[in-house]
Design a protein that fits this description.
alpha/beta; 6-stranded antiparallel beta sheet; 31 helices; 22 strands; disordered C terminus
């Protein structure tokens, strides 16, 4: 019995040693997963032997622990053994197969009677080991010689179970002995195979490292702090030196400006001492041929041939940085003149204006070339570009090094000087430069410029406010003919701010339908009857109050909003005419003012046709009033547009007649029905000379079969004089101020009921 005990202990001890050895190999080389499973299988085989000893040798009740240990050892041994063989062949043990092995082992150990266990268990073992061995021989036949031994050894281990089947208890010792030898052989093969696999993996990693580094465009250097242990071809290309070829290179022997020996050693020590995980630095390095490169370094700890070392990744950023600088220059400089642009201007202003206590001063001039768009139209953009370049060069020459010249875009420049005391000198230099001729290949040209000057902190408290102040002063200078310079004043900026505020408010006002129409009556000069109304636009701006039509109409024309505003007012007037026509059964003509921009718009005729169609009013109920200046400036286009409107049956009146450039020829060419004498000619009435002028206009209109309306009638004397001079209709505060829709409707109802006193006739009779 003692012999069997020693045999079991020797078997178990051998299995433990082999199992631990395999697990240690796997721990070192984690890619060799089969070694882990083979180690676990061998340890479970040892557990099986220990469980059998406890079952047979231990006193009660400890002997009860033997069966669970035997069961766990048997199942774990077979499952891990099969899994190890599958992994060695590059496969995975199916979960179903593992469950089948576990269940089969449990049944073979527990189900048979005690006397039959030495038959059923060895047979099951034989089946699993023989099957696994045959599969191993098939799977591993074309692999390495060592691995091919696993299959035959497993087959022999399975055949070893026949000793138990044929000889029972008498065959146990021999079976354990041969099993120990065979498992030792399998374990040894597994250890050697794992080590060989680890070496193969290491070789692959080395080949992969070499493949990556040898073909990398970035330099790779491995150093121990004093020597270069490895350098790839990219390093040789960067430095122009035969590094990494032959013996190790001592860094101290290299040119001092190439690797910066002191800095490299400092970073190497920090990495090796664990102060840094990754080190980054960059710098300019002089390499072979006298070239100076901008290099970037990134380093980390490695082991090289068993020695602690530092691997350095070297990137040549010379071209990239040059491209970045070029892009930055392109983003911050004007392409045509090469001058800094608006981005640089704001940077400079913020640099000079950042101290709120005023310890820094700054002078800013915004310069705009007058009428340069006209110059481009007449001379061409190529010549215009030449003039801009020459003008910029002249300004730069005049300013010298005292101030910085910046192009804001188009025909606008800025001059920045951090010295407040230079303001007067800068102004003189700029004005002197502007009066000189500019010579370009196409000829010699003189240009005017408007300049606005602002000083920090006198005129503004920050960069943005300083630019606004200089801009406002520049626009003020444009009011002076020729080259002019204006100093910033608070009222200029307030005017600009108010103008912008009104522009934004008008856009919102049009969208929200804040602009509406009042109606001023036109009275027959003889009978005093109501002849019609003139629709007058009004804007009650929320939070501000009434805004003058002169102001908001000018804003609409300047911002391109007039077509939208004009269309909205035309539709309002036509809808009101339709409403009155439906209520009173009569159509009272209403005159609507038309802006020159509206009249010359290609879609204006279609707009009028659409509105007439939608409202259903007769065309004779709508009169369109155009200004004298619009007709003069675009006579041909105006004539064509008015002819088309007349063809629709719409009357056209010329407003503000007598203020500008009217000629007999123009009155004859345009299909007009009415002229309205400007209030400037009516105000002096009844002065004899004024009466003579009005009478002459009425005689001219009579010859051309035109009706005459006198606007701006404010007194009885003016009304009598205008009637006697030949005016057909009168309009002004003497009769009524512009009326609301309700009041205008009431006036119409009174006249229709015969309640009107007869206007001027009534007054004269009274």
């Amino acid at each position: 019995m003692h012999g069997m005990l020693y045999l079991y202990l020797t078997n178990a001890a051998m299995f433990v040693v082999i199992g631990v050895a395999l697990l240690l190999v796997w721990r070192r080389h984690r890619s060799q997963g089969f070694a882990r499973d083979m180690g676990c299988s061998t340890l479970f085989a040892a557990l099986l032997a220990f469980g059998y000893l406890i079952r047979t040798e231990a006193a009660a009740p400890f002997d009860m622990l033997g069966l669970p240990l035997v069961l766990a050892g048997a199942i774990g041994n077979l499952i891990f053994l099969a899994s190890s063989v599958a992994q060695l062949a590059g496969r995975r043990l199916p979960r179903g197969a593992a469950i089948a092995i576990g269940v089969g082992a449990a049944v073979a150990l527990l189900a048979p009677a005690p006397a039959a266990k030495l038959v059923f268990w060895p047979l099951f073992n034989l089946l699993v080991l023989m099957g696994t061995g045959v599969l191993a021989m098939r799977w591993l036949w074309r692999t390495h010689a060592l691995e091919r031994l696993v299959g035959p050894l497993l087959v022999l281990l399975g055949l070893n179970q026949l000793l138990l089947v044929f000889y029972g208890e008498q065959g146990v010792a021999a079976s354990i002995f041969f099993a120990t030898l065979l498992r030792a052989g399998i374990g040894t093969v597994s250890v050697l195979s794992a080590l060989e696999g680890a070496l193969r993996d290491a070789g692959k990693l080395a080949a992969r490292f070499q493949l990556l580094t040898e073909h990398s465009v970035q330099g790779v250097v491995v150093t121990d702090g004093e020597r270069i242990l490895y350098a790839n071809p990219a390093v040789r290309g960067i430095y122009g030196m035969p590094l990494g070829q032959g013996n190790y290179v001592v860094i101290a022997d290299l040119p001092p400006d190439s690797f910066s020996d002191e800095q490299l050693q400092r970073q190497h020590r920090a990495l090796q001492e664990g102060k840094l995980d990754i080190a980054n630095w960059e710098g300019r390095r002089e390499v072979a041929g006298g070239r100076e490169l901008e290099l970037r370094f990134e380093a980390w700890r490695v082991e090289w041939d068993g020695v602690a070392a530092t691997q350095i990744l070297i990137t040549d950023d010379t071209e990239r940085n040059a491209s970045a600088r070029a892009l930055l220059h392109q983003a911050t400089h004007d392409k045509l003149t090469g001058l800094p642009n608006r981005t640089v201007l704001m940077q400079r202003l913020k640099e000079y204006c950042y101290l709120a206590d005023g310890s820094l001063h700054c002078t800013l001039v915004v310069l705009n070339i007058d009428r340069f768009k006209l110059f481009n139209q007449s001379q061409g953009h190529v010549t215009g570009d030449h003039v801009l370049k020459a003008f910029a060069a002249k300004l730069k020459e005049a300013l010298g090094a005292r101030a910085e010249l910046i192009r804001l875009g188009g025909d606008e420049f800025a001059i920045v000087d951090p010295d407040e005391g230079n303001a007067r000198d800068i102004a003189e230099r700029l004005q002197s430069a502007c009066v000189q001729a500019i010579k370009v290949p196409a000829g010699e040209y003189f240009i005017d410029a408007s300049m606005g000057m602002a000083v920090f902190p006198d005129n503004a408290g920050n960069a943005e406010a300083l630019l606004r102040a200089a801009n406002a002063a520049m626009y003020q200078a444009k009011r002076t003919p020729g080259t002019a310079l204006a100093m910033a004043e608070q009222r200029f900026e307030q005017m600009s701010s108010k103008s912008l505020d009104n522009e934004q408010a008008l856009r919102k006002g049009i969208r929200n339908h804040e602009i509406y129409l009042d109606y001023q009556p036109k009275i027959d000069a003889v009978s005093g009857k109501l002849l019609g109304f003139e629709a007058l636009a009004r804007w009650m701006r929320p939070g501000v109050g009434m805004v003058s039509p002169v102001e908001f109409i000018a804003i609409a024309e300047r911002t391109g909003l007039i077509p939208e505003l004009g269309a909205m007012l035309l539709e309002q007037a036509c809808r009101q005419i339709a409403a009155w026509h439906a209520e009173l059964g009569d159509c009272m003509p209403v005159a609507v003012n038309v802006s020159p921009m509206q009249l010359l718009n290609r879609g204006f005729l279609q707009l009028v046709e659409r509105v007439l169609g939608e409202t259903g009013i007769p065309p004779r109920c709508l009169t369109l009033e155009i200004t004298e200046s619009a007709a003069v400036d675009n006579l041909d286009d105006t004539q064509l547009q008015l002819q088309q409107l007349s063809a629709l049956g719409i009357d056209v009146a010329m407003d503000d007649f007598g203020t500008g450039f009217s000629s007999l020829s123009m009155l004859r060419q345009l299909p007009l029905s009415t002229v309205k004498i400007d209030r400037g000619l009516i105000d002096p009435l009844p002065a004899p000379d004024a009466v003579a002028v009005v009478m002459a206009i009425c005689q001219l209109a009579a010859a051309l079969d035109l009706q005459v309306v006198a606007e701006g009638i404010e007194t009885l004397e003016q009304a009598v004089a205008a009637r006697d001079a030949g005016c057909h209709a009168l309009q002004g505060f003497f009769y009524a101020r512009p009326l609301t829709v309700a009041d205008a409707g009431e006036w119409m109802r009174r006249q229709q009921a015969g309640a009107d006193s007869g206007g001027l006739a009534g007054l004269l009779a009274g």
